[in-house]
Give the backbone structure.
Amino acid sequence: MDNLTQAHSLLFGKSVADLAEYKVEFPAFPLSWLDKSKRNMEGLREIASHLHTKTAAGRISRAGFVGEASEMEKQIIRNLIELEQQVYAQTDVLQSAIQIMVTEHERRISQRLKRTAIGVWNKARSYGNRLWESPIFKVLGGLSTIVFVSSVIAWVVHQWK
């Protein structure tokens, strides 16, 4: 932890998080058919409709299995494939809904202000570290310390005369 971060921790009582902790990387948007302008809270209605149409066929009750064992096995396999497709559709819809909610949350002014403040603090810290490590700063700091100490000594000597 560098000096600026330690000072900030002492002043505010908590450590500064990195900007990367507040930004989340997502995979590609799974419902590519949804228009980019609808990838917000409005789009949740279309996504819910999509989920309903994809899973509506599976909601119809089946009469049972008909035929010989090999035919029954084919029906079971077909049903499992349909269920698997429904699970994939639900996964895509859920992931899209979560992405929309997180994006909407990150668009809030409080979140943008928080990310901006963290970015400014990190930039100031990097400039402070660069200045602190500069040899010119160290030489000037040493010279100013010598001048200050000699001024204090000269003032004390002048006061005692």
Residues 18-107 form one domain. The two ends are 48 Å apart (CA to CA).
